[in-house]
Amino acid sequence: xxxxxxLIGILIVIAALVGISLxxxxxxxxxxxxxxxxxxxxxxxxxxxxxxxxDYQKAYTYLADKENKPTYEQFRQAFLTHQVNVSQNSLxxxxxxxxxxxAIVQVTVSYSSGAPFSTGWSSNETAVLVRQNGRWLLSQxxxxxxxxxxxxxxxxxxxx
Length: 160
Known about the structure:
This protein has four helices and four strands; from the N terminus they run ααααββββ. The chain is of the alpha+beta class and 160 residues long.
């Protein structure tokens, strides 16, 4: 009888910890807000937040106007068809190194493993921004936040 009460007590504590963890997860997730677009770090944060929220129109405004920029429809379709998929990862923005009209922002991308007892992994990456018309805009982001073919030159058929 004592063992049953002890086991029930342990199960109640585990259930309470799971409940508190879920509550904190959902509260913390909804508290993310957009920052003022005055720094490279804020632009990276805002782009990632817009992508996670599915606000592709806003995310697209953070792309640099360079040769071979994807159209808005190509950009949106990359996310809708899961060619670019951020559903299993998160991004932490670090410091920026600014050199004239170019900035490199350190970011840490955390990947979920999907397995129940695995912690996943993290990767230190960089985001590259350029200043255009007084605004910081993205010209490169880490995998899962960026299409592999964006800003890539289109190849022409070889003529014999």
